[in-house]
Amino acid sequence: MQLNSAPSLSYDLQQWSQGYQSQPHEYDYWIEDIEGEIPQDLDGTLLRNGPGLLDIGGYPIAHPFDGDGMVSAIAFRGGRAHYRNRFVRTQGYVEEQKAGKPLYRGVFGTQKPGGWLANLFDLRIKNLANTHIIYWGDRLLALWEGAEPHRLDPQTLETLALDHLDGLLKPGQAFSAHPKIDPYGDRTNPCLVNFSIQPGLKSQLTIWELNRNGQPLRQSTHEIPGFCFIHDFAITPQYYVFFQNPVSFNPFPFFLGLRGPGECINFDRQNPTQVWVIPRQGNQPIKKIEVNSGFVFHHVNAFEEGNQIVVDSIGYESFPEVEPGSDFRYTDFNQLAPSQLWRFRLDLNHKRGDNAPHRWRDRQLLESRCCEFPQIHPQWVGKSHRYVYLGAAHHHQGSAPLQGILKRDNQSGETQFWSAAPHGFVSEPVFIPQPGSEGEDEGWIVSVVYESQKHRSDIIILDAQNLERGPTARLHLQHHIPYGLHGSWISNQQLGIGRSGVQTKH
């Protein structure tokens, strides 16, 4: 294991942990406390999703991934910005807020009060709607990969209902929290690609493609041998790419009320990661390719290069297993191997029986700095990209909280870095293209930064071409947003809102 060898810490662990305090309040206000100037042509809404409650009626949750989803919307128009947040009113959220205590078990270890007897054989899992938020086919959807999405009002963030996408989803069927938007997937129009996993001894993988009106273009179902824990995937013009991490699942501690399902996953470093390359159209066979053992939550992008598929991903040495009874607020980063940016080359001529020579080659470390939450320009999805933006640790070595934004030039290998250390902690950077631009790095990087000394969050806007100039604008919120997961950008044109602020789309 590669341990943290940084000469000194760039952060205070107590300050970092404060970002995991619950935010029970819902706000609606214009942001007036601003340093710098908001670009006039930044015209749309940044949406963020993540756990807003880290306790239920004073009962702490065991892991932030078990927190109820809270959506934040930062709307930009005419050089001004407005903030609004709402909790997703899932059935579990409404019931537990009324009861003042947990009524459901969490995937990552949160239990109902009363010990194992109170949790014995209770296999109900709450739909948290806490992972991602997207706007597609005139629907604003809060996503959680274990169940159906929740539909929200795009103006007020009010929860409208569970959404089965006009019958596309069966009741209880999952709709992954990592859809991809293929900019040219429906002839010259964009399409949304997403998947569902039904795990088991043989896992069922369902893949959908939806046109920009939300109607299905194609659907396919595939059987994958073994237990699948797949959080993300990648696409190219011809293929879907899924990394099946080498993990196993022992359900008995979950059945017996002792652990959450996420605590029953074990990493098997003796076996390789299996990559499934699935054709998007036609009757070509699925290819299975084995690569180095490791764990991947998030992919940057994939593209085709001759007879190879190149995939950039954030790789972990192993699955970051959840220790029962541990406190995530006091993580010992010194004992963790860093997550890093890797490039995989998948040989499409590789034969199934020829695993040994292929398993240990064609993996390249692109960035050794601890990093996560990768982003690229959305028009480069599925094709060769030059620039990658990531949340990253302050120091070059070791594992640590994300405190800065890193830009990597894959052509030159050069990097740019902006840091909020020692008191700031960043969330996922979101790339927003500049209207009318054609360059891959022409736009802005917008992120939420938790300022621990003031216990509030800032919205920062960086010039994507030159991060090291520092924020073009820093918007100080009146409160903090707990560390979030994923977000997206919706232009006012997509929402049908003109420059005057009048909604024209119905």
UniProtKB/TrEMBL annotation:
The alphabetized UniProt keywords are: Iron, Metal-binding, Oxidoreductase
TM regions (residue ranges) = none
* Protein family per UniProt: Belongs to the carotenoid oxygenase family.
Q: What is the lineage of its organism?
A: Bacteria, Bacillati, Cyanobacteriota, Cyanophyceae, Desertifilales
Listed cofactors: Fe(2+)
Which species? Roseofilum halophilum BLCC-M91
Top-level taxon of the source organism: Bacteria
InterPro entries xref list:
Carotenoid_Oase
Entry protein name = Carotenoid oxygenase family protein
